[in-house]
């Protein structure tokens, strides 16, 4: 499903990550964890073409991008990759002048040239899926943060992606609203959606992930099944991270 080889990204003299290699199977749920600044969110943005890597290659389904391509080929590859991936961000990024339903159906009608009636049918079914069909005519300002993020998930699903990328989708929410969003994500996981999730929600990682990847200092430090990573991490850097996340005092 996803093959990433020797991927690297820098901003000027700042190396965000280097030599990233990933293989993610169809229907797999992979959670990326690690300290802030480790390159997790930038990696997601590179997978969706929002940032251009400096080195390496990406293959998602039948779409392939390589740093050695010419500019025109890269642009075409990114356009193809974006038709296969849906992305949900930390901020909801809903259009404030559009209702929930209008936000959801905009991309299918404009990008895919879908007929309005069909788009509305799909949009309503997706809002029902995230528990918000009764809010379809509400504007974002009249929705809670959790509701707005669920609309954002429905909007990403409206393009019928093969995989979903989540960049800390609950970081702006309080605990009660976080639960609403994580519940929808668990439902998608149970239905077999391929997912890569950057999150600090360790409970979600334990319960929903097939695999946890730990990034630090711009590298993948280790990866494994949740029961292995959380119970018996292999590196001292991962052990330190988990102690800090769980609020366990450092030991000398």
UniProtKB/TrEMBL annotation:
One of its GO terms (cellular component) is plasma membrane. SUPFAM superfamilies: P-loop containing nucleoside triphosphate hydrolases. It comes from the Bacteria. Keywords: Amino-acid transport, ATP-binding, Cell membrane, Membrane, Nucleotide-binding, Transport. Pfam families: ABC_tran. Residues 2-242 form the ABC transporter domain. Signal peptide: none annotated. GO terms for molecular function: ABC-type amino acid transporter activity; ATP binding; ATP hydrolysis activity. This is Amino acid ABC transporter ATPase. InterPro entries: AAA+_ATPase, ABC_ATPase_HisP-typ, ABC_transporter-like_ATP-bd, ABC_transporter-like_CS, MetN_ABC_transporter-like, P-loop_NTPase. It is found in: Cell membrane. Belongs to the ABC transporter superfamily. It is a peripheral membrane protein. It comes from Paenibacillus tyrfis. PROSITE patterns: ABC_TRANSPORTER_1, ABC_TRANSPORTER_2. The lineage of its organism: Bacteria, Bacillati, Bacillota, Bacilli, Bacillales.
